[in-house]
Design goal:
single chain; about 170 residues; alpha/beta; 5 strands; globular; Cytidine_deaminase-like; dCMP_deaminase
Length: about 170
């Protein structure tokens, strides 16, 4: 009786996509998180993961209750012509990595030994926070001009992985 049943795919024009690797999966999550950024210069997203579970996320933007650059319609750093990678204190926003680490603290989530997925390589300020938070691996997609950050991350023995989607 079952010999006469013909299986018809629901969506015959759609090819079945291969499952992403864990790095691909979490990097895509970081890219989605970056879409919440309120920065006018660069949208950055971060996801902190342990044992294949998302612990916290963060994107670059102003602290809670503070008017952000998107709302203001102007970037302080652009107004005073601060080059990328310099004078981080001249910004209304916190970096994505800072916000992901802060979220862990705010919610009492342990991130020691975790992996940070970030759309951009961390700056020196974020790198120092990452080192002290005990994060052991960073997977990033885009470079950021900060040689001291690279030096200190290497010295701390944190594994740095340049994301390379296999295609």
């Amino acid at each position: 009786m079952t010999e006469n049943i013909k299986v018809i795919p629901m969506f015959p024009d759609e090819a079945i996509q291969p499952r992403p690797s864990w790095d691909e999966y979490f990097m895509e999550m970081a890219e989605v998180v970056s879409k919440r950024s309120t920065c006018l210069r660069r949208q950055v997203g971060a996801v902190i993961v342990d044992d294949k579970h998302i612990l916290t996320t963060g994107y670059n933007g102003a602290p809670r209750g503070i008017e952000n650059c998107l709302e203001r319609g102007v970037c302080l750093r652009q107004e005073v012509k601060v080059p990328s990678g310099e004078r981080h204190e001249l910004c209304r926003g916190s970096h994505a990595e800072q916000n992901a680490i802060t979220q862990a603290s705010y919610h009492g989530v342990k991130i020691n030994g975790s992996t940070l997925y970030c759309t951009h390589m961390p700056c020196i300020i974020c790198s120092k926070l990452i080192i002290n938070a005990g994060i052991k691996r960073i997977v990033f997609k885009n470079f950021y001009p900060d040689d001291l950050a690279v030096q200190m991350l290497n010295e701390s023995k944190i594994e740095l992985v340049l994301f390379n989607k296999k295609g």
